[in-house]
Amino acid sequence: MVKHIILWTLKEMSDSEKESVKAGIKEGLEGLKGKVPGLVDIKVITSGRLASSTADLMLDSSFESEEALKEYSKHPEHVAVADSKVRPYTASRSCLDFEV
């Protein structure tokens, strides 16, 4: 099993815009479950953020294997979500991939 964790910081925008963007990211990425081979679980954390946080939201996903993660990164449905709902609104991205 492989974990794929992403932390994003959003670009400067109003609080209401941030909430809308976070909801779109959550809906888009969580909607990939059952569509991408090898994707076991996917959750986007958008609420409950404490003041000590340095990121705005987190992706917590699990894959059957490292190969499945590589395929996910270029899967057309994932690329479409990333290009339309994530990349235009994020200022920074941190990634941690590891085997469990």
Summarize the helices and strands and which ones pair or pack:
Layout lengths: L1 E9 L4 H16 L8 E7 L11 E7 L2 H9 L1 H11 L3 E10 L1
Antiparallel strand pairs: 1-3, 1-4, 2-3
Task: Describe this protein with a few key phrases.
100 residues; alpha+beta; Alpha-Beta Plaits; 4-stranded antiparallel β-sheet
Outline the structure in words.
- Pfam families: Dabb.
- This is Stress responsive A/B Barrel Domain.
- Residues 2-98 form the Stress-response A/B barrel domain.
- With 100 residues, this protein is α+β, with helices and mostly antiparallel strands.
- The protein has one domain: Alpha-Beta Plaits, CATH 3.30.70.100.
- It is 36% helix and 33% strand.
- It is built from three helices and four strands, in the order E-H-E-E-H-H-E.
- The protein has helices spanning 15-30, 66-74, 76-86; strands at residues 2-10, 39-45, 57-63, 90-99.
- A four-stranded antiparallel sheet has the order 2-3-1-4.
- Helix 1 (15-30) packs antiparallel against helix 3 (76-86).
- It starts with a strand and ends with a strand.
- The model has no long low-confidence stretch (mean pLDDT 97).
